[in-house]
Amino acid sequence: LLEEFGMPYDEQVPLIGVISRLASQKGLDIIEEAAHSLAHMPVQMLFLGSGEPQYEGMLNQLSHIYPGRINAYIGFSEVLAHRIEAGSDLFLMPSRYEPCGLNQLISLKYGTIPIVRATGGLADSVVDVSDPHRGTGFVFGPYDSNSIIWSVNRALEMYHDPQAWWHLVQRAMHEDNSWRVSGQHYEEVYEWAAAERAGGRRGRFSSRP
Q1: What is the rounded average pLDDT for all residues in the chain?
Q2: Which of 4, 52, 77, 125 has its CA 20 to 30 A from that of 208?
Q3: How many Å apart are CA 127 and CA 134, to the nearest integer?
Q4: Other Cβ atoms within 10 Å of 2 Cβ, number
Q5: Does 208 have pLDDT greater than 70?
């Protein structure tokens, strides 16, 4: 993947993937603010997406300024999207808001550790590594560039601890966000609703209005 984009490979330098609509809602404004600092850190970044012209231009400019560190494919390719998800070590989603989000779920399945902002579906589906038993990614709160840089530094620290990183990847890949689990929750809600309507026994959801 790196060779295709003319980027050198170094196993000590993790690759951060970003697949996104290029818009402020997706956090491209704070990525832009953090980009020059990230380019001087021992990471590489690969972007895939299209959207607002200012961000397309920004990524093209960064690719020119930092060859080998930052590169971008402006447009969309489903095949390339899967290759970036699978080939990256980390996946960055610093969304301003995100009702659900899919890429963080895909990343977990690939063992590509997500770096996400604690909002909406991202907060619901990624547990910060500060929980040593359930952590699956790096989660930050404030919507600013310093939070991205702080999170990447945290990720780098763990990346260079092979045993800790291996356990993190294993936890991420074993997360079950399938419809099998969601379907079971829906069944439980329907059972509760039917019992409430019939005036029968109140189940596990009986505390809800």
Answers
A1: 92
A2: 125
A3: 6
A4: 16
A5: no
For residue 17, which of 82, 105, 61, 63 has the smallest C-alpha distance? 82
Residue located via tokens 């969601």: 182
116 in Cβ contact with 93 (< 8 Å): yes
Which helix (H) or strand (E) element contains residue 45? strand 44-49
| Buried-exposed string 157-189: b where 16+ CB fall within 10 A, e elsewhere | ebbeeeeebebbbebbeebeeeeeeeeeeeeee
pLDDT value for 200: 57
Per the CB < 8 A criterion, the answer to whether 118 and 141 are in contact is: yes
pLDDT at 206 over 60: no
What does the alpha-carbon distance between residue 46 and residue 106 come to, in Å, rounded to a whole number? Answer: 17
Q: Tokens 């299209």 appear where?
A: 50
What is d(CA 167, CA 152) in angstroms, rounded to the nearest whole number?
A: 18
**Tokens describing residue 100:** 């659900």
Instruction: Classify residue 14 by its DSSP letter.
Output: P
pLDDT in tens, 61-76: 999 999 999 999 999 9
CB 20 within 8 Å of CB 12: no
User: Which of 16, 31, 23 minimizes the C-alpha distance to 49?
Assistant: 23
pLDDT computed for residue 205 by the predictor: 47
Q: Which of 177, 27, 148 is nearest to 98 (CA)?
A: 27
